[in-house]
């Protein structure tokens, strides 16, 4: 991108500097709703087969999942912007190992689907953020 003068560059720079935190904030605020929406859709599809709810009633499990998910929401886009794709695999593996005990319960679908949905959503927002940086600055 060619800039006529420094004011054009600074204008574009501040747009990106403001846009990236907005993307992080958007991701953190909307990931829970996306996860609940998709899990409730899966839950209603399974209601005819299984009478249990997919989303666990235990608030401690839900709270732990929320904290881990929000940390994941911050790390994944950052690693995508930094081209640290190997670290993404390490995070995914570490999360699976840490949550292995929880996955032995009857809510295996909740943990597996929740991990996959949140990971995919975070990756997609990270790719959008990387595209924004690339479009404005031509690198990344």
What does this structure look like?
The chain is mostly helical. It has one domain (6-137). The chain contains five helices and no strands. It has helices at 6-46, 59-81, 85-98, 100-103, 108-137. The longest helix has 41 residues, at 6-46. The mean pLDDT is 79.
Radius of gyration: 19 Å
Number of helices: 5
Domain unit count? 1
Largest sheet: none
Question: Percent of residues in helical segments?
Answer: over 70%
Distance between the termini: 14 Å
Order of helices and strands: HHHHH
Describe the protein's topology:
Elements: H1 6-46, H2 59-81, H3 85-98, H4 100-103, H5 108-137
Short description:
With 140 residues, the chain is an all-alpha fold. Helix content is 80%, strand content 0%. The protein has one domain (6-137).
Features:
140 residues; mainly alpha; 5 helices
């Amino acid at each position: 991108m060619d800039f006529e003068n420094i004011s054009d560059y600074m204008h574009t720079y501040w747009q990106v500097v403001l846009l990236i935190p907005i993307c992080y904030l958007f991701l953190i605020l909307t990931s829970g709703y996306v996860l609940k929406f998709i899990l409730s859709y899966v839950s209603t599809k399974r209601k005819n087969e299984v009478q249990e709810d997919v989303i666990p009633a235990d608030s401690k499990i839900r709270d732990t999942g929320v904290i881990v998910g929000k940390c994941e929401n911050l790390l994944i886009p950052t690693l995508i912007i930094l081209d640290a794709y190997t670290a993404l695999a390490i995070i995914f593996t570490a999360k699976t190992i840490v949550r292995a005990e929880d996955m032995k319960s009857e809510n295996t679908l909740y943990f597996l689907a929740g991990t996959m949905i949140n990971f995919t959503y975070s990756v997609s927002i990270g790719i959008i953020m990387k595209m924004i940086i690339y479009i404005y600055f031509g690198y990344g």
